[in-house]
C-alpha cells in the first residue's frame, strides 16, 4: 500500500490508533511464500523474539478468550499448533499482528507488542480471523464484505473495545458506545490492509454490521471481560453434555 494517495487510506494519526489489526499477506511483502519468519542465525537469541515466544506461550496457556477459541477450532477440525500456526516477526509501522490467510498463520509483531495484555488481545483478535477462516469460505482478498464481517467480529469479541481499552484511548461515550467502537475499529483495520477509500470501507461495514455484530460464535455472547470469557468457555466445554440430555 506504499505510495497510495492520502485520500485512499487513514492518515498517520488514524494508523497510530490501531493497537492490533488483521493484516493479510499483502502487508508482509517481505515474507517468503511459505510464511516463515525472515530471521538470521542469531536472531532467535534476540530479546524481542524470546519475549514474544514467552508471552505467546503464557497467553495460549492462561487466557480464557484464547483457550475457548483454541478449543472451538479443534472442535471444528482446525487444531492449532503453536510452532506451525504462530510466527513472531519484526513488522513495519505500527502493526501488532495479522492473519496470513495464504498459509493459515498468525503473525505476531515482536517489535510492536508491548506487554502481556497486548499480546493476549492480538492473539485473540487474530484467532477470531483464524476461526472464521476455518468455519467459512472467506474470500479475504477480493470480497471486502467478507473481510469487513470478520473485522467486526474480531473487534466485538476480542476485547478490542473493552471499557478499559477505550478509556486508555481517551474515547468516552454511553449510548451504544461499544457498537460505535466496533464499527470504527473494523473500518480502521480494513483501511490498514486494503487500498480502498474510507467510504468503501464504511459501506462494507454498514452492509454486514447487524448480522456480523450479532454473530458471537464461538463465545455465545459478547465476552466483555475475562469473567465473561471464562463462563463462555465453560459453556462451550459443556455444550455436548447439554445437547446429550435434551
Automatic annotation (TrEMBL):
The record's Gene Ontology biological-process terms are: proteolysis
- Origin organism is Vicugna pacos (Alpaca)
Family listed: Belongs to the peptidase M76 family.
Assigned EC number: 3.4.24.-
Which Pfam families does the UniProt record give?
Peptidase_M76 (PF09768)
Q: Entry's InterPro entries?
A: Peptidase_M76_ATP23
Specify whether Metal-binding is a keyword of the entry: yes
Which keywords has UniProt assigned to this entry? Hydrolase, Metal-binding, Metalloprotease, Protease
Q: Which GO molecular function terms does the record list?
A: peptidase activity
Q: What is the lineage of its organism?
A: Eukaryota, Metazoa, Chordata, Craniata, Vertebrata
Q: Does the keyword Cell division apply?
A: no
Protein name per its UniProtKB record: Mitochondrial inner membrane protease ATP23
Q: What class of enzyme is it?
A: hydrolase
Amino acid at each position: 500500500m506504499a505510495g497510495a494517495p492520502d485520500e485512499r487510506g487513514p492518515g498517520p494519526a488514524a494508523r497510530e490508533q490501531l493497537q492490533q489489526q488483521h493484516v493479510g499477506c499483502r502487508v508482509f511483502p517481505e515474507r517468503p511464500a511459505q510464511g516463515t519468519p525472515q530471521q538470521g542465525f542469531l536472531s532467535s537469541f534476540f530479546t524481542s523474539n524470546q519475549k514474544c515466544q514467552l508471552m505467546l506461550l503464557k497467553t495460549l496457556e492462561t487466557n480464557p478468550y484464547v483457550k475457548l477459541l483454541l478449543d472451538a477450532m479443534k472442535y471444528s477440525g482446525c487444531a492449532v499448533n503453536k510452532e506451525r500456526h504462530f510466527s513472531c516477526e519484526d513488522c513495519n509501522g505500527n502493526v501488532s499482528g495479522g492473519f496470513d490467510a495464504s498459509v493459515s498463520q498468525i503473525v505476531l509483531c515482536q517489535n510492536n507488542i508491548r506487554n502481556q495484555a497486548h499480546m493476549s488481545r492480538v492473539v485473540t483478535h487474530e484467532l477470531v480471523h483464524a476461526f472464521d477462516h476455518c468455519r467459512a469460505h472467506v474470500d479475504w482478498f477480493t470480497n471486502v464484505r467478507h473481510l469487513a464481517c470478520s473485522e467486526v467480529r474480531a473487534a466485538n469479541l476480542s476485547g478490542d473495545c473493552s471499557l478499559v481499552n477505550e478509556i486508555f484511548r481517551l474515547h468516552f461515550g454511553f449510548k451504544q458506545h461499544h457498537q460505535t467502537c466496533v464499527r470504527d475499529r473494523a473500518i480502521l483495520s480494513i483501511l490498514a490492509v486494503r487500498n480502498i477509500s474510507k467510504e468503501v470501507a464504511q459501506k462494507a461495514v454498514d452492509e454486514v454490521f447487524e448480522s456480523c455484530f450479532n454473530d458471537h460464535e464461538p463465545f455465545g455472547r459478547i465476552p466483555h471481560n475475562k469473567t465473561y470469557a471464562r463462563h463462555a468457555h465453560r459453556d462451550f466445554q459443556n455444550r455436548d453434555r447439554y445437547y446429550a440430555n435434551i
